[in-house]
Design a protein that fits this description.
By secondary structure, this protein is of the alpha+beta class. Helix content is about 20%, strand content about 25%. The protein contains three helices and eight strands; from the N terminus they run ββββββαααββ. The protein has helices at about 70-75, 85-95, 100-115, and strands spanning about 1-5, 10-15, 25, 35, 55, 65-70, 125-130, 135-140. The strands form two sheets. The protein has a five-stranded antiparallel beta sheet. It has a three-stranded antiparallel beta sheet with strand order 1-2-5, with no helix packed on it. Helix 2 (about 85-95) runs antiparallel to helix 3. The longest helix is centred in the last third of the chain and has 15 residues, at about 100-115. The mean pLDDT is about 90.
Length: about 140
């Protein structure tokens, strides 16, 4: 996932090489919004692959931009049930548009509890950035 965000205008350019699409969280409404983009082939799979870009205007109001790897939503419990997008959305909704680091910690904690009885089979990475004119805060985990 490549995202170029202009904090002053909220203008965003997205390109995806097979990655999960990011979410944004605003103070209001509290529900996470999934950004739309064309998903291309994973990097290195197709020689000379071309990747489409999508432009979105997210506005000048502050928002939290959340990216994650598929290991988050594909983490499994002992019954081989996946964590899934719905659980991720619930965590994002529960925490809301706050500082990025607590948001990342909450997602990682929920995924770890959910999959505690199983061996981790993929990377679990979350990146969140608070985008606001004149300000940038971020957290990773």
């Amino acid at each position: 996932m490549l995202a170029l965000i202009d904090p002053a205008s909220g203008e965003t350019l997205l390109a995806s090489a097979g990655h999960c699409l990011p979410f944004i969280l605003r103070a209001s409404p509290a529900a996470p919004e999934e950004l739309e983009a064309d998903c291309g082939y994973p990097l290195g799979v197709v020689e000379d692959a071309k990747y489409a870009t999508t432009t979105a205007t997210l506005g000048r109001d502050p928002f939290v931009f959340v990216c994650y790897t598929d290991g988050v939503i594909e983490a499994m419990d002992s019954d081989q049930e996946i964590f899934g997008v719905e659980r991720l959305l619930q965590v994002l909704s529960d925490v809301g548009a706050v500082n990025p680091q607590p948001l990342v910690k909450a997602v990682r904690r929920k995924v770890a509890r959910f999959s505690a009885a199983t061996k981790q089979s993929d990377d679990i990475t979350v990146l969140a950035a608070l985008i606001a004119p004149g300000s940038l805060e971020w957290g990773t985990g």
